Amino acid sequence: MMAAAYGLLPLAALLTAVATAAIVFALGDARRRQRTFWNLFGAGTKLALVLLMAHGVLQGHTLEVAWPALPGATLRLVADPLALLFAVLSSLLWLITTVYAIAYLEGSGQRARFFGFFSLCVAATFGVALAGNPFTFFCFYELLTLATYPLVVHRGHSAALAAGRTYLGYTLGGGAALLAGTAALYVAVGEQPFTPGGMPAVAEWADRAPVAATAVLALLLGGVAVKAALFPLQGWLPAAMVAPAPVSALLHAVAVVKAGAFGVVRIIEDTYGYALAAELHVTPVLSALAAVTIVYGSVRALAQAELKRRLAFSTVSQVSFITLGVAAGSQLALIGGLAHLVHQGLMKITLFFCAGNYAETLGEHRIDALNGAGRRMPVTSAAFTVAALGMMGAPPLAGFISKWYLGIGALAQGQGWVIGVLVASTLLNAAYFLPILRRLWLLPATRDWPARAGRAEAHRGLLDPVLLTATAVLLAGLLAATPLSPLGWAARIVEQGYPGL
Amino acid sequence: MTQAGLYTLAASALAGIGVYGLIVRRHLLRRILALNLLGNAVFLLLVALARRHPGYVDPVPHAMVLTGIVVAVSATALALVLARRYYAETGLRHLPEDEG
Amino acid sequence: MAAGGALSLPLAFLLPLLTALVVFLLGARRAPWLPGIGALATVAAVADAVRHVAAHGPQAYHLGGWMPPLGVELYADGLAALMLAMTAAVGLAVTAYAGPYLHDGHHHQEAERFWPLWLVQWAALNGTFLAADLFNLYIMLELVTLTAVPLVAITGDRASLGAAMRYLLLALLASLAYLLGVALLYGGTGTLHLRQVGELVGAGGPAAVAAALITAGLLLKGAIFPLHTWLVPAHSNAPAPASAVLSALVVQAGVYLVLRLWLWTFPALLSPAVGWLLGGLGAASVLYGSLQALRQSRLKPVIAYSTVAQLGYPLLLLPLAAVPAAAAQAWQGAAYYIVAHGLAKAGAFLAAGNIRYSLGHDRLAGLRGIAPELSVSVLALGLAFVSLMGLPPTAGFLAKWQLLSGALGGGQWPWAAVIVLGGLLAAGYGLRVLAMALAAAPSDEPVRRPPQRLPRRMVAVPLLLALAVYLLGVSAVPALRLLEQGAPEALG
User: Fold this and answer.
1) Less packed terminus of chain B by CB within 10 Å, N or C?
2) In angstroms, what separates the C-alpha of C201 from chain A's closest C-alpha?
3) Cα–Cα distance between C285 and C291 in angstroms, integer?
4) Do chains A and C touch (3 or more CB pairs under 8 A)?
5) ipTM surpasses cut 0.90
6) For chain B, what is the domain count?
7) pLDDT-derived band of residue C2, with 50, 70 and 90 as boundaries?
């Protein structure tokens, strides 16, 4: 009985997000209080369900729902530890971002549409996390593309529409590659569940037909590389910055890019298996691309005068650490990459929230206009500082932990050059974050901002989320050694799932 | 030449005239007539088919032709009404794409 | 074969016909509830037929107890049952939608004409799916045409009369080509029964000429490139409920018959070259229709060109049918495509009808800053488009996946490429429309006239149709199991 109830949890959590979307759509624009209630209720319920799932997994229950969509293709949701890492992250940040978005969008139009699609995005992200086979993964991956589009073009002006076109051009193109790759994989080996260490049938197939197996792997990785913003497929991400701040925060810190990076993990580790991917000479290419992306994103970030665009290029750079961790091929590096999946999410969402606060409260979008903003908005700026230092990899913050593991993991594999990439990235991060911190704290204010309305520097709904996520950045670093920290959970995933690395 | 052969030949000629008229003529009435000719060609062929076995008349083609004629009459009636309405509305005797 | 189950076959044909007669005699205004009753009764008969086919295999019924060749046989296998069911769903939706659409005080004349035409058409469509011999197929096809043309012309304006006239001339030419082919086949085999002809027909010259004539006629009725020219003006000038049935059902009946005849009647003639020719026409339809849809400046022509594109996909089965590794999946994909397209296209046209009804136009540029009253209709349009794009979680996606898997499984790369490319192009034209609907109103816009209020039922019906596509997107297994009943032997 208990076990059966646990088995239904993945479906219940998915339907919670879908139902929230449906309710929010049905309520329409006028009923603000009801919408706020349902948004928070949905996000809270989903987080509770996901945490219950994590508890279930720790108890050793199997959490799985599956039904046949086609003869030979099953829709399958499975909560394994890796899935939960991503699901917990997205559910937690969904709740926080919902609070932020309610405050941020107060008074703007089309909020029912916004929050409806926002919930659908989270449903899709959850599906990506729990997808138990490539077919299910593809379905939710494409659903994520569709659900995010209305959010990217939310403002509806022509710049937003143009950005939306760029976004869809990249993501649907990637989706087509993923579709072809997934269908070809199914034709070759039939339906196989994601298997830590790789699907045995794929290994056999690659023995018989190495060229076809490599081509399919390239298609699959090409498909997810778009969302993971891997060079040279990163162009959509800066363009999508036209969206409102909560969208940038959740999508670019968590949902879309992470779905891509998560896809890289699922394909390399759970479909082909690292050993096979290395044997097919794909992982060196992937490492090289990730390294190029890390440096390229940082260099481009340096040149940006607008805060959100600088953060976007920083995302391009930082997300590739996950890919780098996967491609390095050692347990420690994979732990670092998976921990970074969470850490980068926490840090980047904090940074985007802060950018939104500056834009909303002070009306400033450009970096050179933020002189002295630290005194006007100390809490926001403190949070920004914590997250930025974390991004640079300053100990004991979250970013330091993941980079440390990546570095020693790569060294263990004899890939000393990765240290070079890490050092270069840290220097570049410092080069584009420290000037911002200097402006915030050390330079005198050059502008006349409107005086504070009350004691708070910004709306509570904008401030509390920032405080929460900044605290999480701090805790994820300080408590990294505990088993339920992101690092501890990542170590658990790797020790249980990938002992062979 | 056998009787059936003669009918078939006549049917082919009629069909040729019908298709030619439908494609080349622009006047709607002529095109409707061309369709009727083509229909009659098919009916003629069917009637000829009924006698393809010596000493025995197959009733099925006859039944088909009778039904076919009913259908053809209805179709022609619809075409004529439509052409009239079209003329009343536009003053044109041919379709606009066919001008010039 | 249970007689009780088989009886629902003639009822599926007779009930809408009878309703049409009564509506015609009484007048639609005196009995506005009658079409709804007739539609429900038809749906019940179809549901019964589908249940019997699913449980007991293919069903046959001989009208009046007369056996072929002079008697009329009705025959329903899995494919026919699936088509009947799809038609019933679309038919019920269109009937529900057309009530408030036509009886709003502006469309009196249209209302009087619409109901008998549509109900006879429903009967004829069901007859097309049930007909077991080539000549009855001719009658049914002709009946479909003779009701479809007045539906195009129903508004009586210049554009629709011209479109209807062109449609009629071409459709009659197509019918006669078909009939000529049937005459030649009868001359060669002495039978008209679909499967008996298939058993007796050789691969010789006369049979090939007959098959070519029949196929050309059906391709014209199915608006397959390059015989599609009549479709766009006809479908985009008709009133919304008529557009919906024309695009979702009438042209699809043509494509359905191409598959039916090549898989059951002419499999002996289906050489690789013929398969490639027909598949090539399908591929050309997919690409040409999608590219044209990208270039339209009004909503209804976008949807109409999308019909041209979508009708091409099922034809891709024909080159794949001869490849053993591809046939089974491609067959399921093609059949499911027809179902998915029917529901999604009806939903899209009805949603577009709401937009037009409310705004008085359907120019894409005029959709910027669309009123909140239309948000449900725009949502329905968007949901339907997602299925046309073949993206999950829709029936269109599952169909595409099966067709694509078939093509890849048989090593048929060109067809796989067409399927993927067609999906991308569909995303292009679909999202071009939706981007306009999501866009903010230009700030220099003069004050707009308030949109006309939409009756509730008209808002709900397109959304329900669109949601049905998602329901079928959760699992295709029940429908594909039904399709197994009496699947063509040609597929091995």
Assistant:
1) C
2) 34
3) 10
4) yes
5) yes
6) 1
7) very low
